[in-house]
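Title: Prediction job returns without error message
Component: structure pipeline
Severity: low
Priority: P3
Assignee: unassigned

Description:
Job completed but the reporter wants confirmation the result is attached to the right record. Sequence as submitted:
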Amino acid sequence: MQHKTLIKVRGYHLDIYQHVNNARYLEFLEEARWGYLEDSGDIEWFARHKLAWIIVNININYRVAATMGDTLEIFTRFSKIGGKSAVVKQEVRIAGKDAIAADAEVTIVCLDQKTGKPVVIEGELKSRLEQHIAES
């Protein structure tokens, strides 16, 4: 499943050069991941099972500057499921400009909130995540 989140660039997102500050992209990407989890119904499932996703690595490429007034379309999807981690791919496009502002690969680990330790991705958890890849 690919999810789309829209964010309008505001003045407080900009740096001294009048384009979106690099650190803001991390916030935009996080907003899009939360939207994805909410819309898929996973956020309730993970809460019920006392599981949480933590980020262990982010690789981000900045491509084209986004400026005030731009509408950003952030596309989010799972791309890989491993034994203890998964990879989420995200792309930030500038609507109406046929331009990619940034793209990222985010590696996440599923954490047991009771023990604070990573869990193996197997069984119902693995099936649930694999559905996201199958729907892409």
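Comment from assignee: result matches the submitted record. The chain is about 30% helix and 40% strand.
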